[in-house]
Predict the 3D structure of the following.
Amino acid sequence: MTERAGPHDLARVVINHGPTLMLETSQGDRYFAQSRRVTPPPVTGDQVQFVDLGGGQARIERVLPRLSVFCRLEGRHQRRVVAANIDQILLVFAASPQPESDLMDRYLIAAQLLGLRPLLLMNKADLGDVECEAAEALLREYLALGYPGLRISATTGQGFDALRRRLNGAASLLVGQSGVGKSALTNALIPGAANRVGALSDALGTGRHTTTHTRWHPLPGDSALLDAPGVRDFKLWALTPRELMQGFPEFSALKPCRFADCLHQHEPDCAVRQALDNGGIPARRYQHYQRLLAQMQQTPAWRRRP
């Protein structure tokens, strides 16, 4: 196959479908490439240098340095990068399906540890007060902890002006449970997104109506929106004690415990447990911390590092 030295030697990975990648240049030209024997393995959001092989095929020469990554646990202990070069996590939840607070906590812990800005989006806010009661209570809990959040509706456009301001100049990754309306939100924010997704899916031979791989959608103003698949579970990779506690910023806002290595269990003069007894931190969050603590204590990272 003859190589072509064209003007497009830089492109973005817009879909990572196993070993097959779709690249898109700033001019909108698309190419297929293989991820085999490329280090690090390219993921959605990566910028790559490539060689045009003709016929819509390309060979990736190298992955440009990443400004940030988003990771998840794969297998028992393996940390896997699933998206690159993002600035913020848009954590979508709704009145229906019932919000999974532990899942939301884990996403927020990951964002904290990876240096990504979180933004909570309570979708379907146009539903009645009774339907939204549980989701509204959870949003108020997170807002009280200092997390930013918006009440939005992909159906009516409620909250979209504030959301668009938050999206400006940033690459934003949509995450959350299946059924919370991430695809509807993408279509409402990006006119023609459904057609774009269909075209990309047809080109890759994947399903048109279900998001199975993270996709990169460019937005005006040097912005982008990435829609990730709905998940039944999102698990954290192995964390050290210090890393796990960093994921609960309400702990670090308290006065120091007596012992620097306090795990906030049964140690004397523990500021976290005192705050729990006084209602200063949510009992639900503390209980989830204890469950994660028990899980992490079984990992090699916990035994090796402080």
